[in-house]
Request: fold
Amino acid sequence: MASTLRAAKQLVKLWEQVGLTPDFPALGPYPVGDSVGFRVAVGMLLKSLEPGRYNQDYQQYETIRKLRAGYSNLYMASVLGTSSLRTMGGDRVKHYLTTSPTQSAWFERFSMGCVRRMGQDVRQDWAITLPAMHALMDLLDSEWARVGEAASRELVASIAAYSIIAFCGSFRGAEGMVYGGTTTTYMWWELRTI
Amino acid sequence: MVGAANHLIIPLLGKFKGELSARYHLAPMAAETSSGLKPKLWVSRLIEVREQMGRVQGPAFCDACGEIARALVYEEAIITRLLAVQEKSPEVIAREVNLMEEFGISRSFRRGSTSTARSRGVEDKHVDLINRWRKFEQARGRWPTLAMRDHYSDLEILIPELVKYSQAL
Reply:
């Protein structure tokens, strides 16, 4: 702020030396309406006061920022967003120019302020240990031997195969869920030799 | 060392994080790990169940309609069983571990797997080979700059190297 004010004063002084009238863009009042995302910002602040997973008093920034993403997606899908969207760049790298309020400079600064004031409580998932994996598989093995109903066997086989493949293949959740596929891939379930 | 037939190929089909379209990935895996985990046994059981249900194509992990199963459903089922393990064997999963909060299907297996592999002496090059998709993620949808040897590597020739990771677990 101080440096901005100092620069403005210097400009006024320099302009006056050559007889120019000082002219700065108006800092206000803002037009009636919401062109910079005030409504979404209010929504995010209210959302932040709701009980969170880690803390009963507030929600994480990572949670409340999804409101911005949701609004942006809606805007991009709207008549206004679709018709005003422009792109720059070639086939591979593109920059999208949008008039969405949540992409305004004000909203960027609001988001940055949220992160700086709220901080981010990042908790890594517990790493399942080898003894825990064995205990889990032993439990599922005994379930498999015990249950007779088809639906129960299907669930036991699914979560056991999923767990052991995810562990032995070092996959993440979303990756693990796409095993299988078409008839062709189904055949690949068979053991292969080289 | 894994014998010639002592492995299975896990086929993956889908659009992975950072990729532009669905594609196939083939993941070789030891039929049985050195500590006694049995991927082959459970995959065989799952195939048996699916065949009994008349499902011979489509996702292996699916719901009653044959659509890809939701991760949340599996997560809840796995947490229920891990809680039973914790109750019965606190020396395996300490009571201080809040499984409801700390277990996540998205990362717990991968973190445990990678840590276990390294602690059991798997070389970094094999860990990196198994986790090679990281390069694709970092490339943000573009083809990553893989070494030329990666472009020209053939899966069947690489299987003995790829299987070393799961074999060591």
